[in-house]
Each structure stands twice: as structure tokens, then as C-alpha cells.
Amino acid sequence: MTDSAFAPAMALALILAAPLFGALAAMVMGRRGAGIALATVIATVAGILTLLVIIAGDGAFTLAIGGWEAPLGIQLRADGLAAGFVATTALVMGAILAVAGKPFGAGAIERRGAYGFWPLALLLWGALNAIFLSGDLFNLYVGLELLTLVAVALVGIEGKRETLAAALRYMMFALMGSLLYLLGAALLYAAHGTLDIALLATRVGSAPGDIVVAAAITAGLAAKTALFPFHSWLPPAHSGAPAPASAMLSGLVPKASFYILLRFWFEAAPDIAGTGVLTLLGGLGALAMIYGSLLALHQDRLKLIIAYSTVAQLGYLFFVFPLAGGTSAAQPWAAGAWSGAIFHALSHAMAKASMFLCAGLVIEAVGHDRLPGMKGIVRTLPMTVFAFALAAITLMGLPPSGGFTAKYLMMTAAFAAGQPFWALMLIVAGLLAASYLYRPLALAFALPDADAKVPRAVSRARQAAPLALALAAILLGILSAAPFAFIQIGRPGAAVEGLE
Description:
- By secondary structure, this protein is an all-alpha fold.
- It is built from 22 helices and 2 strands.
- Strands 1-2 form a two-stranded antiparallel ribbon.
């Protein structure tokens, strides 16, 4: 290996291996896995910082494992998109693991979650990193399956009947998605002799059945992303899991399958994206936005409001497909739509993880997450309520947050493309988000009932973690120029000229 290739290889090795070795060590340490998690965070972040510097200086690169080039070998790919997701995942995981120290740490009561949380959390992190850095559809499948198994285990980690039922439902939807994705990948390999994304870009479209294959892969990934109407597993799973697990499940896990959809449509198969397919994906996203928001308005538990909000917010991501194409003519607005979707995915990851961590701290203080019990909670948890409010600003798409930058880019693309319907949907989505997020915030500032139980105190150090995530989502909008330029490094041609 040459000196120029050593640093990238070591960076990728740290990012991929540190969480996996950390998970193995955490299995041995049990409830003392918090120390292992801290060491894992340090090692992984060191690799990510190195990767960011390399990509910023030298651009995107690929690394052939063992020197075997595709299609025979496995290739890792690191560009601005991958590094942005990897860095955001590290930020979110660091905050989650910091908050999880008390409920799952050495002082936790004797229960299953205290032993299983740390290895599962680190395995989930490793699976996410593997997905973001993989360059072929089969390795993406392997990473996605590991991610799904770990996510299902985290839903049912406490062993309660309702959470086990939610985990089973999640597993059934995930299994259906996996079978569809694997079927599509197998048919692609049979038709083109490779699953490498870069090689597929030159071949997909030449076989008559490629659009059917693309439909199978897309349907499978949509089920894993919880796109309407495949969403019914998400609210009970995300609301029933422990708050640190909910933060991972909502903030990070659905982004992995959406990331694969982006890679597939914009890099592997941009030439077969017809107007009908892209409009269907956008339409399902709009239905998800309306349906999830309306149901969030009718919930009386904080975690259920946040969970149904996730159904709605994930719908926005699919607006990128109709805004990015459907015609063979070059579309200069496609770059804005593509960048807006990425900004939304990253800002949503931070804001939604912050919200679930806030919900966990509320439950710790009052013993439940029913809305009436939140009256006056700002007096006990001022930092937590402030973090929730900042995260709400991001989800509503208000300036100066990263959510505002995302909506601005997508709305600009919608008007430039002559498709104002999608811009209208984004405006409606923001108003609905304001409606369902206003309720818990209003109660937090209301006067508590005279006979209300005094909430338990929560340390400010633990409240600082969700606040840091919410602030990061705001800063993504304030300092958007640098992240915007960075994610353009190595972007696919279809993100510039649009899908065919």
C-alpha cells in the first residue's frame, strides 16, 4: 500500500471496525459497556475527522479491499454524501450514548436492557457506517440486514408484551422489504453480472426487465424506510422502545434505506426513472406527510407524537424524486432538490434524536409521557424544553435551522421545475408540524395542577446532550455554506442534470 493510500485505508478501517470491536467488548463488559462505548466514540470520531480532511482536500475516492477491483472484489466508496451521513451518525450516536449512561449503565437495575443495550447500539452504529461507505448493492444488503436485526432487538429489549408485539410487526415488514430487495439484486446480477453501483450505471437500462427489478428494490427499501403505506410498524416500535433506542430508530435507521434509494436511483439506475415512477414516489411521500401529521395531532403521549411526526417527516424526503426528473432534458434545479433532501435527512436525524432523548428525560422526571403530566415541566427541565423547542423549529422548517435550508432548496427546485404542488405540500407540512408540536410546548410552559406530583430532578449534564443535537440542527442552517459545498464532492451526474 502506498503512503497516499494509507491514510484513507486507516480512516475507513477505524470507522468500520471500531464499532464492531466495541460491540464485542461490550458483550463481555455488560452493564459496564459505557466505558467501551466512550472508547468507541473516540476511535470512530478520529477516523471520521481524518476522512473529512481527506475528502475536503483530495475529493472522493474508492478503496478496493485486498486490492481486488470490482466486480470481483469489494469496493468502499467515500464521497461528500457518505462522509456527511457518517459524521452526522457519529454526532447523534455520541449524544445518545451519553444520555444512555444512567438507564443502561453500571448502576442500572438488574434487567435485560442493562446488558444488551451497549453491544446492540454499537452494532447498529457499525451497520450504519458499513451502509454509508459500501459501493455495491450486495454489501448494502448485508449492512441493511444487520441494521434491521439490531433495530428489532432494540425495540423489544425491555421484554414487555407490547414492545415485543411491536418488534414482531417491525420484523415482518422488514422481512418483506428484505426479500423484495434481495430479489431485485439477484435479478440485476443475473442480467448484468455485477452489483457494483459504478458498473451498474453503465449497464442498467439495457435489459428489458430492469424497470421491474428497480420497482422491487424500491418497494423493499420503501418498506424499511416506513414510507406510506408501509408505515404501520413505525409508531408502536419507536414509541415503545426505550428513549435512547427510539432516538436511534427514528433519527438514524430509516435514513439508511433512504440513502440506498438515493444511491440506486441517482447513481446505479438514473436512465430508467420515468415520470410515472418518480411522481408515484413523491405522491406517497405527500400522503405520508399528511397522514402522519394528522395522526400526530390526535395523540396524547409525547413519544407517539414524535413517532407519527417521523412518518410525516420521512415523506418529505421522497419529494426529491419528482423534483429531480422524469424527462431526458437537463434540469439544473435537480441539484437543489438533491441537496435539499440530504439537508432534510441530516437535520431531521439530529432534531428527531434530540426530541426522543427529551421525551426520555421527561419520562424520567414525571414517570410517564402523557401530555397532561407535562404541565409546568419547564421549571424542572429548562434545558430539555429548550432543546425540544429548537428541534421543533427544525422540523417546522423555520429559519435559521437546517430544516429551513432543506425546505428552501426543495421549494426553489419545485418552482424552477414548474411543479408548485410540491412547494405547497412543504408549506402545509410546516403548518401541520407547528400544530402538533405546539401542544407539548404549550403544556410545558403552563401552570402545573395544584395536586400534581413534583417531578424528579434530572442532571443538567444529561440534559445537555439533546440540547447539543438540537443546536447542531440549527447550526446546520446558519453555517449551511460549508456543509452544502462538502456534500457536492463526488455527487452523481444525475444530481446535477436530473434523472432521465
